[in-house]
Amino acid sequence: MTTDTIHRAELPIDDRPHGIDLSGDILHAAVRRFGSVDVWYVARRNDQEHMRRSFQIVGTGQPFAAGLHRHHKSAVSPDSHLVWHVLENLCPHSLPAPEDLTDHQVVGTECPACRVGLSGKRGSGWVPV
Fold it and tell me: Which secondary structure element, helix H or strand E, spans residue 110, and what is its range?
């Protein structure tokens, strides 16, 4: 029997995307120390397909890239002065499928429209990294 496990990841507040392997939604977000937001999530089980997803921390009032569409959680700083938001990095644009690759070859690229970093594998299409 395979069971689910809750894990914690620290996402830096650095205006960059960060990948996490998870099988569901982010359960909770909190600021435990300056410069990062911690998120708790259900981890990808060993018997599941690779599901790396990309998240970025954005502050209230800060501009963010077009590819950051799905809001997951918000976290308030310990002094209650700042609120940080966990957004998922999704590319809304269509790119040609990476069908010229061999079955096990993986290639990285960047969407020219929204600058989301993408990883492609034959038969799987593109996923944010």
Answer: strand 106-110
The sign of the dihedral angle between the CA atoms of 37, 86, 98, 110 is negative
Can you read off the two tokens belonging to residue 87?
């957004």
Q: Are 103 and 112 in contact (CB under 8 A)?
A: no
pLDDT string in tens for the chain (129-residue length): 567 889 999 999 998 888 887 877 899 999 999 999 999 998 877 776 656 788 999 999 998 876 777 899 999 999 999 999 999 877 655 666 666 655 555 566 776 655 666 766 655 666 666
Residue 118: give the domain boundaries.
Answer: 94-129
22 within 8 A of 52, measured Cβ to Cβ:
no
Sign of torsion over alpha carbons 18, 113, 124, 103: negative
Whether residue 19 sits in one domain with residue 65:
yes
Closest among 118, 101, 98 to 109, alpha carbons compared: 118
* Same structural domain, 83 and 28: yes
Place of tokens 């960047």: 110
Task: For residues 22 and 124, give the distance between their C-alpha atoms in angstroms, rounded to a whole number.
Answer: 17
